[in-house]
Task: inverse folding
């Protein structure tokens, strides 16, 4: 890390990962050295652990309005996504079409694009376009559904912009045609209310570490009666739907975390949302040529993605890092690839802006004074970098001259 | 998180010579907003052809800014004749090294310097006149050739790290491969030419596939009591049917992918995909 870094950490990168809640850590600890039994064992020592796992399963089901037998524990969101999509592809070997979007997480996007090398069959993949607010066209979606469609996989909320898709409507449209529907809800669960009793989704992916549980545990919700083929074969765990000894401590942690976020949902959608809005409005006001990426209202309460034109994201991040401010960027340089984020490109964000995009994602652990801290430091960072940018002065001159062509 | 050296961090956080020299004797501009990095280098050159001042403006990541800063420090007070010999490796060395994915930042520094010197001398850089290989980042074959030769690059990935060519849509990968081969052939021992034809008609393709199946695949499968039949060829997709013992063998998918497809890719076309048909 950069040597001038302060001890102060202002963590606004919660869509990347979250702090494990202290209550969660506390709930987990006994299951390492004290209650270390195997939940499958016949003896009481192991069996009591099995009861705790069942309790955790119940808490997770409660959070999303499901029943406990619809919850399958996995190792992460990516495993949940792979399990759902590969299960559908194997359940309907004659259906060779998948509908998804241009803005999916790589866990879904790359899987769909690599299906032929896994299944040995060519699948037609429809990647639905988004508009410049990041929203889908439901008419286009309806047109894409055919008798050949094996599964629809559409994320509930986008990790980069926080834009929320109308999953209830979309799942209903698939259901009418007898098509399976999967949603990657790792960013949505815990941040917005989700009730599987009302939403006809067949598969839903959850990731522990996005909601203050540890890394290395996830959930795949599978609606009762949905055809299912396991991804990991092995023992009888999870009723034979996912082999492998349970990650007990993490499962207990995830159960506790679900209980916590259920109780904090109001806080997330009032206080956290208000902090996010104050940060966003403050930055857009203080910094010229700053643009919000993503729909203003159809959005997670914690996420804000802003482009600062004529500067590059990695440089912004590393300067913020000196002040202990943690965020992410959709710029090319931060990803190791040479092109900026596929989400921003799909939204048609101009290159002048995509390279300078910064994502702030808050959590219930953020405080008002942290918003002040970012508002105090970021405008100067952007200004300094712009002074160094060969494009800035030119752009300002053009704007001053009132270039009416609309170009930037 | 990139592993940056202390030198990179220092030049990034406290860049030297930021700005633009008014009435500069030489101006070199490279890169663009679309590419994600750009550098404008301005020089003051005295009558004895020595660089007396250098300033830069850079849009880009930490290593782009650090490379620019290190370059200006390096060339201040340097005679032009010497500055002409500065390479991207010199810039990277001054920074204590760069992550390999970031080498293109040092290349950008060198290119800006060359452009500035060409501007001073009133000549046109040959680099700009080459054939554009990578359309995404506007890289010419001359730039790729030079990078391959000077930095001893062997793979497309390395070429992308140094020049950005091939880092976008990937359409130019075949051409890059050819250029790497050509350049390396000139400097190293000749490689065995690829016997496979570059383009072929569907009929030629089917004939070659049948030939490989008959000559190599079928005899091997027959040893295990199996057999194979070609059903259809549609573009790159080859549909076959496994017969005899293979038809009921649990490992038949592995056989198809690991053996049949591999053989066909080696000997016919490396984009072929073999799948089993329900005949």
Result:
């Amino acid at each position: 890390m950069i040597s001038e870094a302060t001890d102060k950490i202002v963590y606004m990168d919660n869509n990347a990962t979250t702090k494990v809640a202290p209550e969660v850590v506390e709930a987990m600890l006994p299951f390492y050295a004290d209650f270390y039994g195997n939940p499958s064992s016949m003896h009481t020592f192991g069996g009591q652990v099995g009861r705790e796992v069942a309790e955790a399963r119940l808490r997770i089901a409660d959070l999303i309005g499901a029943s406990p037998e619809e919850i399958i524990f996995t190792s992460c969101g990516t495993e949940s996504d792979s399990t759902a999509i590969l299960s559908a592809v194997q359940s309907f070997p004659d259906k060779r079409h998948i509908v998804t979007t241009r803005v999916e997480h790589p866990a879904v996007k790359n899987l769909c694009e690599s299906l032929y090398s896994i299944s040995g069959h060519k699948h037609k993949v429809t990647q639905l376009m988004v508009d410049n607010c990041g929203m889908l066209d439901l008419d286009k979606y309806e047109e894409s559904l055919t008798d050949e469609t094996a599964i629809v996989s559409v994320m509930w909320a986008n990790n980069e912009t926080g834009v929320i898709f109308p999953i209830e409507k979309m799942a209903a449209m698939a259901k009418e045609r007898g098509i399976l529907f999967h949603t990657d809800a790792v960013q949505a669960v815990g941040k917005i209310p989700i009730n599987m009793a009302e939403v006809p989704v067949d598969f839903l992916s959850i990731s522990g570490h996005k909601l203050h549980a540890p890394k290395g545990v996830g959930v795949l919700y599978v609606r009762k009666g949905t055809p299912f083929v396991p991804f990991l074969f092995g023992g009888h765990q999870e009723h034979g739907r996912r082999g492998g000894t349970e990650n007990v401590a993490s499962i207990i942690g995830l159960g506790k975390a679900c209980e916590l976020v259920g109780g904090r949902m109001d806080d997330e959608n009032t206080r956290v949302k208000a902090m996010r809005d104050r940060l966003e409005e403050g930055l857009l006001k203080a910094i010229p040529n700053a643009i919000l990426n993503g729909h203003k209202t159809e959005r997670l309460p914690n996420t804000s993605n802003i482009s600062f034109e004529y500067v590059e994201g990695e440089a912004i991040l590393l300067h913020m890092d000196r002040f202990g401010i943690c965020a992410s960027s959709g710029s090319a340089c931060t990803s190791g690839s040479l092109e900026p984020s596929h989400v921003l490109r799909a939204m048609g964000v101009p290159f002048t802006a995509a390279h300078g995009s910064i994502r702030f994602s808050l959590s219930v652990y953020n405080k008002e004074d942290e918003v002040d801290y970012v508002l105090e430091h970021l405008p100067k960072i952007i200004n300094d970098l712009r002074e160094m940018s060969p494009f800035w002065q030119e752009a300002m001159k053009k704007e001053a001259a009132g270039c009416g062509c609309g170009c930037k | 998180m990139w592993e940056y050296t202390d030198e990179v961090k220092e030049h990034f956080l406290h860049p030297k010579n930021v700005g633009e020299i008014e009435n500069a004797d030489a101006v070199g501009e490279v890169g663009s907003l679309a590419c994600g990095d750009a550098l404008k280098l301005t020089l003051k050159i005295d009558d004895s052809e020595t660089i007396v001042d250098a300033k830069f403006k850079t849009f880009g990541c930490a290593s782009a800014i650090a490379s620019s800063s290190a370059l200006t420090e390096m060339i201040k007070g340097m005679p032009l004749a010497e500055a002409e010999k500065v390479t991207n490796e010199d810039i990277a060395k001054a920074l204590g090294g760069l992550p390999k994915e970031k080498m293109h930042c040092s290349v950008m520094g060198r290119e800006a310097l060359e452009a500035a010197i060409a501007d001073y001398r009133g000549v046109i850089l040959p680099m700009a006149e080459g054939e554009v290989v990578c359309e995404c980042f506007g890289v010419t074959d001359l730039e790729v050739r030079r990078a391959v030769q000077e930095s001893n690059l062997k793979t497309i990935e390395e070429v992308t790290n140094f020049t950005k060519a091939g880092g976008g849509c990937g359409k130019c990968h075949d051409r890059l491969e050819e250029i790497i081969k050509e350049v390396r052939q000139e400097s190293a021992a000749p490689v065995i030419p690829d016997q496979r034809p570059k383009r072929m008609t569907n009929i030629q393709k089917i004939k070659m596939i049948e030939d490989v199946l008959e000559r190599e695949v079928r005899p091997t499968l027959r040893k295990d009591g199996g057999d194979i039949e070609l059903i259809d060829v549609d573009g790159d997709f080859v549909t076959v049917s496994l017969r005899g013992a293979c038809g009921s063998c649990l490992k038949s998918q592995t056989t198809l992918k690991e053996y049949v497809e591999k053989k066909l890719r080696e000997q016919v076309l490396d984009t072929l995909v073999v799948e089993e048909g329900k005949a």
Summary: The longest helix of chain B spans residues 202-223. The domain at 6-121 of chain B is CATH 3.90.1010.10 (Sufe protein. Chain: A). Chain B has a mean pLDDT of 86. The interface with chain A takes residues 1, 6, 9, 12-13, 15, 18, 29, 33-34, 36-40, 57-62, 64-65, 101-102, 136-137, 160, 164, 167-168, 237, 253, 256-257, 273-276 of chain B (CB under 8 Å).
